[in-house]
Every structure is written in structure tokens, then in C-alpha cells.
Amino acid sequence: VQLQASGGGLVQAGGSLRLSCVASGRTFRGYHMGWFRQAPGKEREGVSCISGESRAYYIDSVKGRFTISRDNAKNTLYLQMSSLKPEDTAVYYCNALRFDDLDPINYWGQGTQVTVSS
Fold this sequence. Notes:
The chain is built from no helices and eleven strands. It is mostly beta strands.
């Protein structure tokens, strides 16, 4: 599967952005999907993920501010980000995960830059 992320940009603190990630292929529903981010000088961290049945999970720092969703008919993953903070500044990557028997297989998009000014 190939992933194409978009929607990043520059926004003031307190603002909102919506990230999108379009996946190629016809088996989108079968993938667990997620958003990761990597800030300068820091390791990549998982932000949120969603199962094929749309069960969603979030890290504590974004709970109540970010909403992950997916449209399986459009092969698209979203991340609605609200009440953005400067510490949310990072390159955001979408991820698709499937299992080959018990072996995890990850696919990554190219990343989209989110910059939150104070």
C-alpha cells in the first residue's frame, strides 16, 4: 500500500488543522491505521491509531483535542487537530499496519509538516 499525507501547515496556537492520508489499494479496511509525529531532535512517537472497525486510541497529550477517523470507502485516514499547541509542532506521518501471520508489516507516508506558532 502507498500512503499520501496532506493537510499540514502553519497555524497559531489554539487553531485547527485536518490531516488526510489517502491509501492506494483495495484492502484499506484490513489495515490498522495511525498517525505518528516527529519533532526536531526527538524520536518519532505514535499519536493516535484506529482499527479497521474504527476503534480509536490516543496518547494522553492529545486526548480531547485530536480526533482520528477513517473513510474506508475513500481509502482515507483523517486527523482533526484542534486547540493546537506549539508542542504539537512536528512532521506528521500516517502509518498502515497489517499482520502476516504474527509478523507486523508497516507502511509509511511521506510526512506533512505541522507548525504551531505561539
